Amino acid sequence: MADAPPARRVVDILTGAWQAQALYAAAALALPDHVAAGAGTAAALAAAAGSDQDGIVRLMRLLTAMGLFEDNADEGYRLTAVGGLLRTDHDQSMRDMAVIYGEEFHHAWAQVVPAVRTGTSGFEYAFGTSLHGYLEHEPGAGAKFQRAMNAGNAFFGDVATAFDFSGCRTVVDVAGGSGMLLSTVLRAYPELRGVLFDLPRVTPVAREHLDLAVGPDRCLTVAGDLFEAVPAGADAYLLSRVLQDWDDERCVRLLRNLRAAMPDTARLLIVERVIPTDGSGLLALLWDLHLLMAAGGRERTIDGYRTLLDAAGLRLESVTPLALETSLLVVAPVTDGPADQRPREPKEA
């Protein structure tokens, strides 16, 4: 649509939020689940969702045009592959992501003007507290957020193939959340053992997932604060979508804690979106502003990441593109050891 008339382009952009909220409504009303269970007519869907039939007809008409459903006159509504991702029982379900984006994050984005004017997160304007405070004190919010984060896990499998863990004995996932990324890596490397490190309120959820995914004998959970210290002595460290939540000062602090914990031969694997400097890609730019709305965080350019790493005694080795415009940054400690142990020059892909 880049070559559309200017007025149409403005309208398409403005109404994009309506499409997102229609998708949210489908997730919140569990319409994909109901269609999958056989509710193929508007009347059946309205009854299953406890909704007005005319409202369902109009919503489903839009969702069909958006490609989430097909409407066959003889067979009724059917799910597409896109709509299937909003099913609760889909193994790559994005339903929880749609819900939190349509509720909490939608309210945060409504405060985009004061957020941009002041540099304070839109979430704080909308809810009177930071995202981290909300997740800690609002009942059920932490688990909801973790499920939403897991819903954006299309790149987890890429991490396990983009970096060769075969020479590692132990990997520590720092601020590892529910353990989805760590379990993906451990399943790909059966000889590898893991440690998930996160806040005390998070580790019980991770423990439950890891026990089911890889078994209790292959992974430990350790509670703590990454701004204080992290488990030492591992061969590899994972830091997925963590730096994006913090300002430069806090990022350098946590990276220095990681450097202090890392043996000289260890590697730190950072998973983040990198802001392109050549005008390519839109997703990283959208997420960068979203982080201001949600947590007061930011995405960074490659030079921005290098600046943080340099301040922490670390050096960027390579950058590998992953799914959903995410990147894997492989980072080595700066050492005074033999030349063959020194970090290689960065290689960007």
Keywords:
349 residues; alpha/beta; Arc Repressor Mutant, subunit A; Rossmann fold; eight-stranded mixed sheet; two-stranded antiparallel sheet; globular; disordered C terminus
Commentary on this structure:
It is a single chain. The chain is α/β, with parallel strands linked by helices and about 350 residues long. It folds into 2 domains: about 5-90, Arc Repressor Mutant, subunit A (Orthogonal Bundle); about 155-275 and about 300-349, Rossmann fold (3-Layer(aba) Sandwich). It contains 17 helices and 10 strands. It has helices at about 5-30, 30-35, 40-50, 55-65, 80-85, 95-100, 105-110, 110-120, 120-125, 130-135, 140-150, 155-160, 180-190, 205-215, 250-260, 285-295, 300-310; strands at about 70, 75-80, 170-175, 195-200, 220-225, 235-240, 265-270, 315-320, 325-335, 345-349. An 8-stranded mixed sheet has the order 5-4-3-6-7-9-8-10, with helices on both faces. It has a two-stranded antiparallel sheet with strand order 1-2. Residues about 340-349 have low confidence and may be disordered.
